[in-house]
Specification:
By secondary structure, the chain is α/β, with parallel strands linked by helices. It contains seven helices and ten strands.
Length: 276
C-alpha cells in the first residue's frame, strides 16, 4: 500500500495486461497529477482462460486485501495485449463496479501525434508509456520497457511518437537457449561475479547478462541517433529482473515503476466519459 484512500474518495483502477503478468493499481480519480504513487498496487499472472466471474472474484479479493471496497471504484481503464482476456475483464469490471472499463485502442484520444505507418498497430501499453514519459520527463524521451519483449518507444523533440524497436525479453532469450540446446539449462539471471565464466552455469549467466546489456546499449545508440542524441531514457516494466542488466549498461536510465499505469491515468482523463 503506497497511500490511504480518504473516506468517500472516488477511485480509478488502472489495469495493464501483458502476455505473462498483469499489473493493477488504484489511484484517486479526481486528478491525474494528485499522487505520484498509487494507493495500492498488485502484480498477478496473466491467465487467458479465466472467465469474467474469475476476474471479478480476483479483483474483489485484491481490493479487500488493501482495505478497499468495490463501490469506491468509480472508473477503470485497461491496456490489454491479450485479446482473449479483454471481454472477460470488461464483464468483470461492469459486474463489480457498475461501469464498463475504458479500453485503450483506436479512437481513444491520446494528445500525442503518432508518426508511424499504421498507428493502429501501436500496443496500448506502449502508447501509455509514451504519453506518461512525455508528461513526466519532457521531450525527446525514450522508454525502455522490460517485459516479455524488450520495447523501446521514441518520442521526438516535438512530442510526437516517432517509432519503436522490439527485441526478445531476457527471460524469453534464456528460455529459448535452454529449450533449443541439449545440455544447457535455465540459469538464474543475476549479476555474474566476472565477465568470463569458470564453468557452464557461470558462462551462461555471463553471456546472457553481458550480452543483453550490449543489446540494450546497441538499441539505445540507434534510438538516440534517430532522435538527435539527447533524449532522456526511462526504464519501466520488470525492473527487478532488469537490475543485473542495467548495472552493466553504458546508459543509466531513470527507473519509473509506475510509468505505464500513470499513462493509463492520463489517457482516462483525456477521454472523460460522456454525460448520461
Amino acid at each position: 500500500m503506497a497511500g490511504r484512500a480518504r473516506p468517500g474518495m472516488k477511485l480509478l483502477l488502472t489495469i495493464d495486461v501483458s502476455n505473462t503478468q498483469t499489473s493493477l493499481a488504484v489511484w484517486p480519480l479526481s486528478s491525474a497529477n494528485e499522487a505520484a504513487a498509487p494507493l495500492a498496487h498488485w502484480l498477478v499472472g496473466t491467465h487467458p482462460g479465466h472467465t469474467a466471474d474469475e476476474h471479478r472474484l480476483l479483483l474483489a479479493q485484491l481490493l479487500a486485501d488493501a482495505g478497499l471496497v468495490p463501490a469506491a471504484v468509480a472508473a477503470s481503464i485497461v491496456a490489454c495485449v491479450v485479446p482473449d482476456i479483454a471481454r472477460a475483464l470488461g464483464g468483470a469490471c461492469l459486474a463489480l463496479f457498475g461501469t464498463a472499463p475504458t479500453f485503450v485502442g483506436p479512437g481513444l484520444r491520446s494528445g500525442m501525434p503518432i508518426r508511424t505507418e499504421n498507428p493502429h498497430e501501436l500496443g496500448p501499453d506502449r502508447l501509455a508509456n509514451a504519453v506518461a514519459a512525455l508528461d513526466r520527463y519532457g521531450a525527446p524521451v525514450i522508454v525502455l520497457d522490460f517485459s516479455t519483449a524488450l520495447t523501446l518507444d521514441l518520442v521526438d523533440a516535438e512530442g510526437r511518437y516517432h517509432g519503436t524497436l522490439i527485441a526478445p525479453g531476457i527471460d524469453v532469450a534464456a528460455a529459448a537457449l535452454a529449450q533449443r540446446t541439449a545440455r544447457l539449462r535455465r540459469v538464474e539471471l543475476s549479476a555474474p561475479r566476472r565477465a568470463i565464466g569458470a564453468d557452464t552455469e557461470s558462462g551462461l549467466r555471463s553471456g546472457l547478462v553481458y550480452g543483453y546489456a550490449g543489446l540494450v546499449d546497441g538499441l539505445l545508440e540507434a534510438a538516440q541517433e534517430a532522435l538527435g542524441g539527447r533524449a532522456t531514457v526511462v526504464a519501466t516494466g520488470d525492473l527487478a529482473a532488469a537490475t543485473p542488466v542495467l548495472g552493466l549498461t553504458a546508459t543509466q536510465p531513470v527507473q519509473d515503476l509506475w510509468l505505464t499505469l500513470h499513462g493509463l491515468r492520463l489517457l482516462y482523463h483525456r477521454n472523460p466519459p460522456a454525460a448520461p
